[in-house]
């Protein structure tokens, strides 16, 4: 072969003598390699390798040997191709593979030269060529992997080499990306160690949010196996709950032998209300899972904070700061309007929730306050007793029971609802709620039936119990009133939450189909009935095909409303980007309602005036709520949609504008961020009364249980601004009660256990009032204000409570600060910022995290959040 003439290198004026000398040296080496003398080739290749490997460079520039060898790439490549197989060719292939990174892709360089010549080379110590070379190989492996089926055998050894390099250089995340791209995640088992499993699992968990459901489940199962390998049972059970794997949860309880870890796992399951039959026989664990400890610990916590003194609504409103002509005493001689008394009943319940004492109902004159309310308002006033005795089944039944013997059916119905609220989130072997309320489920009185049915729904929310459903389903089948159908469907949806219960959907849908085409389908209670079916499919994702198909029989806009509610519940808290995009497209679509003339003619023909009219934009309004519900728990998505809502409100129809403040509030529950407060405050002065009402309620949602001073001032100003508007003023009072809920010790936030899990029961409790407020005057501002009590399902203390190994409360010093995202960060990064030191028990705000300040105890929980069991470290 005739040697090619290699042109002399041209030097730039700004190049140093060292650079010129290096260029000459490289040219000589290339001439020797491409020359005719075979004796000079091996030593020249070795020298070239040495110069490339030892070249130093800055992070922003190409190593000089690679830059200067670029023009010679074609010559070296041709020489390599012409060589016969052997060690020399392998060594030269290594060099060509590295040089291909700097070569321009022309006829000389082909698409996969780096990978091709690497496979031809020695395949030894590939990491010596540097991280960028490994990145290039990974890129080409991913592209090549999908092109040919037999690539596994060829590329598998190289993938193993790359993984070994990444894991030995603290670059496990890059390795995870490679294995995810080529669908070989199982290979991680060979590389996961005690030192690197935590960052790997954290990163994989973050990635699981952005892939399809099958891939996500596969990744999460892998994470749970890694955690089990290293004895991290609490972290593993969180993942098991995320993928709803009851067998894995049971396996973890049976495998773990450490009592403290078992207690902590039980507390995590209890906080999530995870329903499963535990095969481990242990009274303490059973008690934890039943949440029977909740009331005792909460009252101990309240005494520690010295907030046991009950608060009256006047103290929440701070009426003494209002102008004299607007002051209206709740406890004084002057009576308010019935609507404001009703608002005070709700406020009294929310503010004193869980404390078992107040200044209106638990006093000697408690009956008087109930009679200050009118008609169905007495139902809600009495039901507030349920909030006062929240979680205290033993202490709450007796004071509520006496109201069951009154002759007034509204008060009796309120007492039934109160009994259900007391039992909310508590499991009790005696089943007091079923025993006391079961007799009234088939009552001939509408009020008693509603109180009993809704009470049972709240008491057994998330339990999925077939005996409870068998009691409620006949109510739906035999219901003659649309109100009964709506509330009973909601109750069934709460009980069968997320169980994909075909029986519930069959019964409710059959009843709805009977009403198809009739005026009754326009009732807001039919919307609640549809939402009840949707709740049964909560978190079921793709399993909503059957009810979605059945919904095709309904006329518009009911069909779109129902299908959107199904999507909202099925994907709530999942952060699924594709579903969010689909819903946003629905919001953008133009809806063509029937011509007004045709409607007027139809109305003229009718003998009676229609009670309800179709709102053809309601499907879009529910889609707005659904976007917020689905993005909950995924920070980037939440931040993006808050911006999108501004556009929707600006250009949307009145019904859609009504939903925007509610959706904004849903993205920031119990987390009063200044920008969200500002937006909702603007909406609370809107010319549309419904938008203003919903925005005011949204302010209560974002500040729920925070005692936020800025919100409290804003709501007092709104009380003056809306003093002459009874509906807006009612909403202001409700929001004031929510902001001071539990005297600032509670939260409605469904995210728990360091924001890793979304509590489905809490999410359902939050969504019911929001869906009802899409038609505010027909439901919550009308005669169905008792729907607000569904919030009892979401109420939880926002605490950090530390217990010792015997489950006794113990005080430890902790550092509390804003949670910092550590996914993908090298080393041992700090998990909190802006640190304050406290002694437990402490109140935790949204986005706050705690860590132990001394080494006296060991934390077995994945994060200090909620109730944590600590293990004493031996001296």
From TrEMBL:
Subunit structure: Component of the 19S proteasome regulatory particle complex. The 26S proteasome consists of a 20S core particle (CP) and two 19S regulatory subunits (RP). The regulatory particle is made of a lid composed of 9 subunits, a base containing 6 ATPases and few additional components including PSMD2. Interacts with RPGRIP1L. Interacts with CRY1 in a KDM8-dependent manner.
Role summary: Binds to the intracellular domain of tumor necrosis factor type 1 receptor. The binding domain of TRAP1 and TRAP2 resides outside the death domain of TNFR1. Component of the 26S proteasome, a multiprotein complex involved in the ATP-dependent degradation of ubiquitinated proteins. This complex plays a key role in the maintenance of protein homeostasis by removing misfolded or damaged proteins, which could impair cellular functions, and by removing proteins whose functions are no longer required. Therefore, the proteasome participates in numerous cellular processes, including cell cycle progression, apoptosis, or DNA damage repair.
GO MF assignments: enzyme regulator activity
Sequence ranges assigned to domain 26S proteasome non-ATPase regulatory subunit RPN1 C-terminal in this UniProt record: 823-874
One cellular component (GO) term of this entry: proteasome storage granule
Family, per entry: Belongs to the proteasome subunit S2 family.
Domain RPN1 N-terminal: 26-322
Keywords recorded for this protein, A-Z: Proteasome, Repeat
Stored Pfam families: PC_rep, RPN1_C, RPN1_RPN2_N
SUPFAM superfamilies tied to this protein: ARM repeat (SSF48371)
Cross-referenced InterPro entries: 26S_Psome_Rpn1, ARM-like, ARM-type_fold, Proteasome/cyclosome_rpt, RPN1_C, RPN1_N
Protein name: 26S proteasome non-ATPase regulatory subunit 2
Upper taxonomic lineage: Eukaryota, Metazoa, Ecdysozoa, Arthropoda, Hexapoda
Coiled coil: none
GO biological process: proteasome-mediated ubiquitin-dependent protein catabolic process; regulation of protein catabolic process
Keyword Repeat among UniProt keywords: yes
């Amino acid at each position: 072969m005739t040697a090619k003439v290699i042109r002399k290198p041209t030097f730039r004026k700004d190049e140093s003598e060292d650079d010129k000398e290096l260029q000459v040296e490289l040219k000589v080496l290339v001439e020797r390699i491409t020359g005719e003398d075979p004796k000079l080739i091996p030593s020249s290749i070795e020298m070239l390798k040495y110069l490339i490997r030892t070249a130093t460079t800055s992070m922003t520039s190409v190593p000089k040997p690679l830059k200067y060898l670029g023009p010679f790439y074609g010559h070296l490549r041709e020489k390599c191709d012409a060589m016969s197989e052997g060690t020399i060719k392998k060594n030269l292939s290594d060099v060509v593979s590295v040089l291909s990174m700097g070569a321009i892709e022309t006829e000389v360089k082909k698409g996969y030269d780096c990978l091709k010549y690497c496979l031809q080379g020695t395949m030894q110590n590939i990491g010596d060529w540097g991280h960028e070379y490994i990145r290039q190989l990974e890129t080409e492996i991913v592209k090549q992997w999908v092109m040919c089926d037999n690539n596994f055998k060829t590329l598998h050894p190289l993938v193993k080499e790359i993984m070994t390099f990444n894991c030995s250089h603290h670059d496990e995340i890059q390795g995870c990306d490679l294995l995810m791209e080529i669908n070989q995640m199982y290979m991680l088992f060979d590389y996961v160690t005690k030192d690197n499993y935590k960052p790997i699992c954290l990163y994989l968990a973050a990635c699981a949010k952005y892939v399809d459901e099958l891939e996500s489940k596969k990744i999460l199962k892998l994470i749970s196996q890694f955690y089990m390998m290293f004895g991290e049972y609490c972290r593993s059970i969180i993942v098991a709950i995320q993928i709803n794997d009851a067998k894995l949860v049971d396996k973890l309880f049976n495998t773990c032998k450490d009592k403290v870890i078992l207690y902590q796992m039980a507390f995590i399951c209890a906080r999530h209300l995870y329903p499963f039959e535990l095969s481990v026989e242990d009274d303490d664990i059973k008690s934890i899972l039943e949440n029977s400890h909740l009331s005792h610990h909460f009252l101990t916590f309240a005494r520690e904070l010295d907030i046991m003194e009950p608060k009256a609504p006047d103290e929440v409103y701070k009426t003494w700061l209002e102008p004299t002509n607007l002051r209206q005493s709740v406890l004084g001689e002057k009576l308010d309007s019935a609507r404001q008394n009703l608002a005070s009943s709700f406020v009294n319940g929310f503010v004193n929730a869980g404390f078992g004492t107040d200044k209106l109902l638990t006093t000697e004159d408690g009956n008087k306050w109930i009679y200050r309310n009118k008609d169905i308002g007495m139902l809600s006033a009495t039901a507030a007793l349920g909030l006062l005795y929240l979680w205290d089944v033993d202490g709450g039944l007796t004071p509520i029971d006496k109201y069951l013997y009154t002759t007034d059916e509204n008060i009796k119905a309120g007492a039934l609802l109160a009994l259900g609220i007391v039992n909310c989130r508590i499991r009790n072997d005696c089943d007091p709620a079923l025993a006391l309320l079961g007799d009234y489920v088939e009552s001939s009185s509408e009020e008693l039936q509603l109180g009993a049915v809704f009470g049972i729904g709240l008491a057994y929310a998330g339990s999925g119990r077939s005996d409870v459903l068998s009691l409620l389903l006949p109510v739906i089948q035999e219901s003659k009133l649309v109100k009964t159908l709506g509330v009973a469907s909601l109750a069934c949806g709460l009980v069968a939450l997320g169980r994909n219960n075909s029986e519930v959907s069959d019964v409710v849908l059959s009843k709805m189909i009977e009403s198809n085409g009739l005026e009754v389908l326009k009732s807001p209670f039919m919307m609640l009935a549809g939402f009840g079916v949707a709740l049964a499919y909560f978190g079921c994702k793709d399993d909503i095909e059957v009810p979605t198909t059945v919904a095709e029989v309904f006329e518009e806009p009911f069909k779109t409303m129902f299908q959107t509610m199904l999507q909202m519940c099925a994907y709530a808290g999942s952060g699924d980007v594709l579903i969010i995009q689909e819903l946003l497209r629905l919001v953008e679509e133009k809806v063509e309602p029937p011509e007004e003339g045709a409607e007027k003619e139809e109305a003229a023909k009718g003998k009676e005036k229609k009670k309800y009219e179709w709102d053809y934009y309601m499907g879009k309004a529910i889609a707005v709520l659904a976007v917020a519900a689905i993005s909950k728990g995924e920070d980037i998505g939440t931040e993006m949609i808050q911006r999108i809502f501004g556009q929707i409100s600006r250009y949307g129809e009145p019904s859609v504008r009504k939903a925007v403040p509610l959706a904004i509030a849903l993205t920031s529950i119990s987390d009063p961020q200044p920008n969200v407060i500002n937006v909702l405050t603007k909406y609370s002065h809107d010319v549309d009364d419904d938008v203003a009402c919903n925005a005011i309620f949204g302010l209560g949602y974002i500040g729920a249980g925070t005692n936020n001073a800025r919100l409290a001032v804003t709501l007092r100003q709104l009380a003056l601004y809306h003093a002459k508007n009874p509906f807006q003023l009612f909403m202001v009072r409700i929001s004031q009660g929510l902001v001071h809920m539990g005297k600032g010790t509670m939260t409605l936030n469904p995210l728990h256990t360091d924001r890793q899990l979304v509590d489905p029961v809490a999410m359902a409790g939050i969504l019911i009032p929001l869906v009802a407020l899409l038609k505010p005057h027909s439901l919550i501002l009308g005669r169905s204000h008792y729907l607000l009590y569904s919030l009892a399902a979401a109420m939880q203390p926002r605490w950090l409570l530390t217990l010792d190994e015997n489950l006794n409360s113990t005080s430890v010093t902790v550092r509390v600060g804003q949670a910092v995202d550590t996914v993908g960060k090298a080393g041992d990064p700090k998990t909190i910022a802006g640190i304050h030191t406290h002694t437990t028990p402490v109140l935790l705000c949204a986005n706050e995290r705690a860590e132990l300040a001394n080494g006296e105890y060991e934390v077995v929980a994945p994060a200090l959040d909620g109730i944590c069991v600590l293990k004493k470290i031996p001296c």
